[in-house]
Write a structure and sequence with these properties.
The protein is of the alpha+beta class. The protein has 4 domains: about 30 residues; about 100 residues, Efflux pump adaptor protein, beta barrel domain (Elongation Factor Tu (Ef-tu), domain 3); about 60 residues, OB fold (Dihydrolipoamide Acetyltransferase, E2P) (Beta Barrel), CATH 2.40.50; about 120 residues, Helix hairpin bin (Helix Hairpins, Orthogonal Bundle). The strands form 2 sheets. Strands 1, 3, 6, 8, 9, 10, 11 and 12 form an 8-stranded antiparallel β-sheet that branches. α2 packs antiparallel against α5. The chain starts with a helix and ends with a strand. About 5% of the residues have low confidence.
Length: about 325
């Protein structure tokens, strides 16, 4: 009987000990709760558009194609732009010919004519001077009247003025156009060249190329449709820039400090675990949720947007995939 009582006592003690241990373990497990955050894989998206308005001539890629930087994506046909280029080129030629004409100066025939007129005025001046000197001597000897002397003197002065004017006309014809005229002609050539360059730069967008490596996600227009300046034609996703975006409540931010790494599970690729590194944190505009911090007070929690890049290469990682992050509190 005494042995039986001892066994019962031992069993009671062992059972009580187990209950206490289970209770302690339960309390510990309850105090350490798990929080699962869900993020999403995003990537840089580039809208492919051009400056050239026209009609889609042909596509060189299809949705889902992988392209490299510089690959041709689409060609646009614009007869109007090509006509403007021809018009601008013609205006450039006109301005260039006009500039050459100004630079060459006055035509040789005009210079020769001005020189002949100057030579004639010099001959007239010499004759007028000789006549004036002869009449002046006769006037001093009282052989001719004062009226005759005055007439010859006036003719002589007019011959001097005519010779000077003819000389200036000859110098002007020989010098050619004025400096202002030459600069103006050169400016017209530069303006015409600028118009040509402007149209040529627009026509360069007749062949749109990939600005970066990536995948063609969506093509918005069809072959043969008209597109305007800046109209989105297709969407290019830069797959090399895949990253996870999380909306994190501020009391969880200690798990996502700048430069800190964390592990995320991706259900879409067999629950594969990947390591991500935080490179961007920004507060969102609105409050995330309300949470009581004390029994007698409360405050509003802010939400922060966290971006993180994968530290390993994952070929199957695509935008839109979910990323699950488990936090131990």
């Amino acid at each position: 009987m005494e042995i039986k009582n001892k066994l019962l006592a031992r069993a009671f003690i062992i059972g009580l000990t187990l209950i206490v241990l289970v209770s302690i373990i339960g309390i510990i497990m309850m105090s350490r709760t798990q929080v699962i955050l869900q993020g999403e894989i995003e990537a840089t998206e580039i809208r492919i558009s051009g400056k050239l308005p026209g009609r889609i001539d042909s596509f060189w890629v299809a949705e889902g194609d992988w392209v490299r930087k510089g690959d041709t994506l689409v060609s646009i046909n614009s007869p109007e732009a090509r006509a403007k280029l021809q018009q601008a080129s013609a205006m450039k030629d006109v301005a260039a010919f006009q500039n050459e004409k100004v630079d060459e100066g006055t035509r040789l025939q005009i210079i020769r004519t001005a020189e002949e007129l100057w030579n004639k005025s010099k001959s007239d001046l010499q004759l007028a001077q000789t006549t004036y000197q002869r009449i002046e001597r006769l006037y001093q000897d009282s052989v001719v009247s004062a009226q005759r002397y005055d007439e010859v003197n006036a003719i002589y002065k007019a011959a001097i003025a005519a010779e000077r004017a003819a000389h200036q006309q000859y110098l002007l014809a020989k010098a050619g156009a004025q400096k202002q005229d030459k600069e103006s002609a050169r400016s017209l050539v530069d303006a015409a060249q600028g118009s040509v360059s402007e149209v040529e730069s627009v026509l360069q967008d007749a062949w749109l190329t990939a600005p970066m490596n990536g995948e063609i996600a969506t093509i918005y227009v069809k072959q043969g449709e008209l597109v305007g300046t800046g109209t989105p034609i297709m969407n290019l996703v830069v797959m090399e820039n895949c990253h996870v975006v999380l909306n994190v409540r501020e009391d969880y931010l200690p798990f996502f400090e700048m430069g800190q790494a964390f592990v995320g599970k991706i259900p879409a690729i067999g629950n594969k675990e990947m390591v991500f590194k935080v490179y961007y944190i920004s507060p969102l505009g609105s409050f995330a949720t309300w949470k009581s911090s004390k029994d007698n007070s409360s405050y509003d929690m802010r939400t922060f947007e966290v971006h993180a890049l994968p530290l390993e290469e994952a070929h199957n990682l695509r935008p839109g995939m979910s990323v699950l992050i488990t936090l131990q509190q």
